[in-house]
Amino acid sequence: MQTQIVTKADLDLLAEALQNEEVIAFPTETVYGLGIIYDSIKAMEKLKWAKQRPESKPFTLMVSDKKMISDFAKTKDRDWKIIEHFMPGPLTLIFNRKETVAPYITNGFDTIGIRCPDDPFVLSLLDMTGPMLVTSANLSGEDSLVDDKAVMKVFNGKIPLIVKGESVSKRASTIVDLSKGKVEILRIGDISKEQIAEVIK
Questions:
Q1: Cα–Cα distance for residue pair 37/60, rounded to 1 Å
Q2: Count of beta carbons in the 10 Å neighbourhood of residue 3
Q3: Can you tell me the mean pLDDT for 106-110?
Q4: Which of 17, 81, 99, 159 has its CA 20 to 30 A from that of 183?
């Protein structure tokens, strides 16, 4: 496979690749991501192969509108305080998935991680393609990558398209687990534990 560097202006080409069940790499407001359309087993297998991802780990669902969270996740009033305050933004929230969501989308997990990015380019792409399953653009277990040159070094020949650019904050998103009744912070990014506590107090 020949890997091509494209620009953010190539939205049609990127959307076509996603709809053809391919993996693409793109910058976000956190780090570079690898993305596929969310409802393709074929695309998911390609993503796992490219990233060398263990079967025991699910991918994050990325949506263009925070209202779409209700289509995939069971939510509570407390959850929406966090959603409304921080999304779009560098935050991934873990919920219990709705029974209508196919288990393969969450890699068999009863939970689902969802993120609504604060990045105009990524939101435009999501508007064209619908939700994507996304993971950081790096080999599993290695550091996240933050620019197209680093992504090309790792994924050249493994994926068809890499969007030229550089990620903004260069820190992965904060992850908050809301699936167990309590608010559990699994990873700190640009949104702090104190900021979340302030919203839900």
A1: 12
A2: 15
A3: 94
A4: 99
- Report the alpha-carbon distance of residue 171 to residue 41 in Å, rounded: 29
pLDDT average, residue stretch 116-139: 97
Q: Which pLDDT does position 181 carry in this prediction?
A: 85
Burial grade of 153 (CB within 10 A; 0-12, 13-18, 19 or more): exposed
Q: Which region, left, alpha or beta, applies to residue 58 given φ > 0 means left and ψ of -120 to 50 means alpha? A: beta
Q: Does 142 score more than 80 pLDDT?
A: yes
The rounded distance, in Å, linking the Cα atoms of 158 and 64 is 26
Q: Is 134 exposed, middle or buried (0-12, 13-18, 19+ CB in 10 A)?
A: buried
Distances in whole angstroms, Cα of residue 131 to Cα of each of 63, 96, 122: 5, 18, 11
| Residue in 158, 119, 117 with CA at minimum distance from that of residue 139 | 158
* pTM across the whole model: 0.96
In DSSP notation, 77-118 reads HHHHHHHHHH-SSSEEEEEEEPTTS-GGGGTT-SEEEEE---
